[in-house]
Amino acid sequence: MGLRYTSYIDHPKSKHSKFVTYGCCHCRTHLSSSAQVMSKDYRGTTGDAYLMNKVVNIVEGDRETRCMITGCYVVCDIVCHMCKNLVGWKYLESERKDQRYKEGKYILELQTICKVH
Ligand SMILES: [Zn+2]
């Protein structure tokens, strides 16, 4: 496999007092932050989930088609690149035009992530 390095998410100074960094709940590797949350109104396989604009330090799994309430999508699971904890999935393609804004975006399952500093 290619290069594996861990990116760290900087906590912006001042202004963003509610800024939260989300990490893997097992190894606390940084995954994303509150600035990347597009929607908190999602359901994952284990419960509540967030739609994220950008997630780092993950490895993408095999492509598969998965049908959900809003239609069928080509997705891949995403796992933490350090401990291989399953943290959610990435939308690759949507069959419905009105759902295409999710393409290239990520779902993070809240049960698999935690707030880190
Ligand atoms: Zn991890």
From TrEMBL:
<dbReference type="InterPro" id="IPR004910">
    <property type="entry name" value="Yippee/Mis18/Cereblon"/>
</dbReference>
<comment type="similarity">
    <text>Belongs to the yippee family.</text>
</comment>
<dbReference type="GO" id="GO:0046872">
    <property type="term" value="F:metal ion binding"/>
</dbReference>
<feature type="domain" description="Yippee">
    <location>
        <begin position="20"/>
        <end position="117"/>
    </location>
</feature>
<dbReference type="InterPro" id="IPR034751">
    <property type="entry name" value="Yippee"/>
</dbReference>
<protein>
    <recommendedName>
        <fullName>Protein yippee-like</fullName>
    </recommendedName>
</protein>
<dbReference type="InterPro" id="IPR039058">
    <property type="entry name" value="Yippee_fam"/>
</dbReference>
<keyword id="KW-0862">Zinc</keyword>
<dbReference type="Pfam" id="PF03226">
    <property type="entry name" value="Yippee-Mis18"/>
</dbReference>
<keyword id="KW-0479">Metal-binding</keyword>
